[in-house]
Amino acid sequence: MEQFTNYIDGQWVTSDQSTRNVNPSNVDDVIGEFARANAEQTIQAVRAARAAFRMWSFSTPQQRFDLLDQTGSAILERKAELGRLLAREEGKTLPEAIGEVGRAAQIFKFFAGEALRIGGEVISSVRPGMTVEVTREPLGVIGLISPWNFPIAIPAWKIAPALAYGNCMVIKPADLVPASTWELINILCDAGAPPGVVNLVMGRGSVVGDALVNSPDVDAISFTGSVWTGRAIGAKCFETGKKVQLEMGGKNPMVVLDDAELSVAVEACINGAFYSTGQRCTASSRLIVTEGIHDRFVDAMKNRMQALRVGDALSEGTHIGPVVDERQLQQNERYVAIAREEGGQVFGGERLEQASRGFFMAPALVTGTTPTMRINREEVFGPVASVIKVKDYEEALWVANDTEFGLSAGICTASLAHATHFRRHVEAGMVMVNTATAGVDYHVPFGGRKGSSYGPREQGTYAREFYTTVKTAYINPGAV
Ligand code: NAP
């Protein structure tokens, strides 16, 4: 079986332990054995990054542009192959996986340009003869910790800005899906990343992630994952004086008003709730529907759900791939059972048998729910959506905001007035009008509010807020 090793200080380094990466569509298909680093190896990677920072932080914008641009081109050239690998390790359908790989490439291209665009400001001083100059500098060594649901896009949107702005990085991908990140690091290495600038330590969060978070040589942590892990990491970063960025869970509302175009609303909800097997932080998990359209909407959703084909991620015609693993599938089943016990009516949601041994589940729509039910308060992270019937727009907005999360929110309506009011008043980092809550552009800020996010936004030019630090210089030219 193929063995994949860590990348530390420009060397491929093995470990005593490894993780077997299996295909959730077919557990008999093993992708490979991936080295599991220990804490000592993690610290070696951090030291290598620290040593390389002296050089990389003074590299020219052209050097950084070339590295990122070549990486983006190499990803694009291998889009189909990398998409297949991603679909095999995570379970997204092949078109979704290829789309994610394309997005990773575009992110590298975007941040290649950012390396050239780092500017500063010259501001008139309040003191005569003095000039004030405000510039941005890299932070130092950044620890990047990523989740399993976007195995290449999330590593890309952390690695690319870290490098573009002159930082060195150590990435720990999710133990469940290390293959896509491994390939990404291999591409960066081939594109000429100098030793120590880019480091990969695979393995467990409790070992590798913890070592990164506790290391005094790491200046900042960018984390994406669950609220529970994120908050624990945030507290440790505060104790050790690190800058931290946390992107966490969601319980994203999609409001459907009486005047919505039914087919548009149904497509937005089907896509938002069930594509990528509902395993998106931006998934529409609460469908908040006004009473005039409620019954027609529910009927149309059920009809549309019956046409969705659940199956092997690599098979043509599959709309919904498998759940990522048995543990997540059991969590989905538990939430469906809880929703039923609390009085919801469940359509779909059963475990499915297929020709291969995988983790397949029919999408579930839970109707007759109220905002206080657990299904409407806790993130499931699977193909499970609930419907909350409300009287009017005002109640819909109130219910949409009645959550500890605030990542993405959507509204389907023909009313400009309601869409405008919703955009201004919904408590979320991203707002969608007549389109799914999931599915975003790569060149604009991404992130949320409330319990969903902490720290500066990721992606777009806004990423520089996290990956750089500001220096204010006072210059008195008359003094010499
Ligand atoms: P998770 O369990 O929190 O894990 C995320 C990462 O943290 C993994 O690499 C994990 O390692 C690592 N980790 C675990 N314990 C750690 C520790 N003590 N110290 C340092 N690192 C540690 O999340 P997940 O299950 O992979 O991902 C699903 C969650 O991510 C959902 O809640 C989803 O909403 C959220 N998400 C949010 C966004 C966003 O941008 N807002 C995007 C995608 C996903 P292991 O591999 O060993 O578990």
Biggest sheet strand order reads 15-18-19-14-13-20-21
The chain-level mean pLDDT equals 97
Largest sheet report: 7 strands, mixed
Provide a count of the helices: 14
Mind telling me the CATH superfamily name of the largest domain?
Answer: Aldehyde Dehydrogenase, Chain A, domain 1
List the uncertain runs: none
CATH architecture title of the largest domain: 3-Layer(aba) Sandwich
Written overview of the protein:
With 480 residues, the protein is of the alpha/beta class. It folds into two domains: 3-248 and 452-475, 3-Layer(aba) Sandwich (Aldehyde Dehydrogenase, Chain A, domain 1), CATH 3.40.605.10; 252-433, 3-Layer(aba) Sandwich (Aldehyde Dehydrogenase, Chain A, domain 2). The protein has 14 helices and 23 strands. The protein has helices spanning 39-56, 61-77, 79-90, 94-117, 153-164, 179-190, 205-214, 227-239, 262-274, 291-306, 326-341, 393-401, 416-425, 464-467, and strands at 3-4, 6-8, 11-13, 17-23, 26-36, 121-124, 131-138, 141-145, 168-172, 198-200, 220-224, 243-247, 252-256, 284-290, 345-348, 351-352, 360-361, 364-369, 384-390, 408-412, 430-433, 453-454, 468-475. A seven-stranded mixed beta sheet has the order 15-18-19-14-13-20-21, with helices on both faces. Strands 10-9-8-11-12-22 form a six-stranded mixed beta sheet, sandwiched between helices. It is globular, with a radius of gyration of 23 Å. The model has no long low-confidence stretch (mean pLDDT 97). It binds NADP nicotinamide-adenine-dinucleotide phosphate. Residues 145-150, 172, 174-176, 204-206, 209-210, 213, 224-226, 229, 232-233, 247-250, 281, 379, 381, 407, 452 line the site of NADP nicotinamide-adenine-dinucleotide phosphate (NAP).
